[in-house]
Structure formats: C-alpha cells, structure tokens
Amino acid sequence: MNTKRSKDRRRERDRMQVDEATLRLHIEALDEGGYVATSPDVPGLVAEGRSLMEAVEIAQGLTRKIVESCIEHGDPLPPALAQLRKGPLDLLVPVGIR
Is there a smaller number of Cβ atoms within 10 Å at the N or the C end of the chain? Predict the structure, then answer.
C-alpha cells in the first residue's frame, strides 16, 4: 500500500513540475496537400494538418498527451521535455498569411 502512495505522490509531484518546454518540429509539405510534423525531441510524434499552423497545433496537443501518458504510467519523459527551460526563449513561430 505504501508503494502505491509513494508512486501517486511521485506522479503528482511530476505533474506539478511539468510546465512549458520548447519543442523542435520538422515539418514537410505533403504531395497531396497539407503538412506533416515530426519531432526529434518526441519519439513517435507524427502530426498531420491541412495547414502548417494546424500541424503545429496538433503536434502540441499530441505532445501534451504523450507527457500526460508518461506521467500517468510512471514512464520517463522524453529527455528534451524532462529538461524544462526557464528564462527567456527565442522562438520562431509560423504565421499564416494566406
């Protein structure tokens, strides 16, 4: 019983520590239209969207789900997400113009 409580406390602590992290995405245009995003930071992440922004938004949502699943099951976070970055960030953010 103490082991279960210990795991639950660890999961709750981990949940509280996860805040925001930067994520590298590799985005490619698809021949049939739309975009696909993958990430070297999150193994297995594949997000497809009709627009570049939609692919990015889907990738963000999937990354959150992957993190939640890791925490819930006691699995380690992908290394890039376990190292949360504090302080100022310089980001390139796509902006749709058409």
Answer: C
Q: Classify residue 94: in a domain, yes or no.
A: no
**Can you tell me the distance from the alpha carbon of 18 to that of 81, in angstroms, rounded to the nearest whole number?**
9
CATH number at residue 46: 3.30.160
User: What sign for the dihedral angle of Cα 35, 44, 26, 61?
Assistant: positive
Interval 23-54: pLDDT, tens: 889 999 999 999 999 999 999 999 999 999 99
| Angle in degrees, 0-180, between the axes of helices 52-73 and 2-17, rounded to the nearest 10 | 150
Indicate the number of domains in the chain. 1
Q: Would residue 70 be called left, alpha or beta, if left means φ above 0 and alpha means ψ between -120 and 50 degrees? A: alpha
Q: Are 55 and 27 in contact (CB under 8 A)?
A: yes
Q: Is residue 96 part of a domain?
A: no
pTM (global) more than 0.90: no
